[in-house]
Amino acid sequence: MAQQGRARRPMMAANWKMNKLVAEAEEYVAQLLPKISGAEGVDVAIFAPFTCVAQVASMTQDTPVVAGAQNLYFEDSGAFTGEVSAPMLKELGVGAVIVGHSERREIFGETDEAVARKTVRAVEAGFLPVVCVGETKEERDSGKMWEKVSGQVRAAFEYLDANRVDGEGIVFAYEPIWAIGTGEVASPEDAQDAIERIRGLLEELGGEDFAGKVRILYGGSIKPGNVGEIMAQKDVDGGLVGGASLEADSFAELVTGAARES
Ligand code: PGA
Predict the structure, then answer these.
(1) Among 26, 33, 43, 188, which lies 20 to 30 A Cα-Cα from 252?
(2) Whose CA is nearest to atom 6 of ligand 1?
(3) Is the distance from the beta carbon of residue 180 to the nearest atom of ligand 1 less than 6 Å?
(4) Alpha-carbon distance 227 to 7, whole Å?
(5) What pLDDT does residue 67 have?
(6) pLDDT at 2 over 50
(7) Pick the catalytic residue: 103, 135, 175, 253?
(8) 13 lines ligand 1 (CB under 6 A)
């Protein structure tokens, strides 16, 4: 059910993860743009691998689509082999960056401390950070969902003064790890419950105006068939999509679905 006038502008974000060669990225963007040209009232971002970011940024530069990166390092330059910094991404035309995706945290050992430093660097550099939080299946089953998620949200603010950040300048994504890439989507009620609690915590951290402006996405097995009921939840402001974002057709359906709910 579409809500009458959403509190925040919805956002639909494609997280390609480690997929697509440059030619595939170009073909995707060329297919996507005409399909979503009529979708108004929704922000669209594509988080491409570093190797495709320049192409995505140049093909989307005169469009409403934001080119994003999946990570950044918090130092600007130096002896950090394999890392990519904010100025390097700025130069390519990047406007948004994912911070603390659970795959980075779980597979690559990214700590709350690193996520906090990356978040503040992204904000200072003028990127829209999409800060990811979420619990494992074991944590949910043992009643520790909120302990984990609230800890991650609090930690992300370690170097950020929420009272001085515009709520529109930061996005959170609640992505329960058990729902990522599994086909097991959270129920709309569970997504709403977690996201409402995150918004409550953001109010505590940065005040009512801040919390009212921050967009909080849901991520984890979003598909064209389930996006409507998730987006219909009061506090859910959009989606961060992996698998179903890899084909231009299905991502376009998600974008137009989100526009219908706006
Ligand atoms: P999924 O991934 O849509 O494939 O579950 C979501 C994500 O990890 O951002």
Answers:
(1) 188
(2) 242
(3) yes
(4) 18
(5) 98
(6) no
(7) 175
(8) no
Asked if 101 is an active-site residue, the reply is yes
Q: Which one of the listed residues 101, 110, 139, 261 is annotated catalytic?
A: 101
Decide: helix, strand or coil at residue 19: coil
Rounded to an integer, what distance in angstroms lies between the CA atom of residue 155 and that of residue 19?
Answer: 30
Predicted confidence (pLDDT) per residue in 173-183, tens digit: 999 999 999 99
Q: For 106-146, what is each residue's pLDDT tens digit?
A: 999 999 999 999 999 999 999 999 999 999 999 999 999 99
242 lines ligand 1 (CB under 6 A): yes
pLDDT digits (tens, 9 = 90+) for 153-210: 999 998 988 778 899 999 999 999 999 999 999 999 999 999 999 999 999 999 999 9
How many beta carbons lie within 10 A of that of residue 62, not counting itself?
A: 7
Angstrom distance (rounded) from CA 55 to CA 115: 27
Active site (annotated) includes residue 175: yes
24, 9, 4: which is closest to 64 by C-alpha? 9
Sign of CA dihedral 94, 80, 103, 22: positive
Number of H helices, E strands in the chain: 10, 8
8 A C-beta contact, residue 227 and residue 257: yes
pLDDT value at residue 4:
53
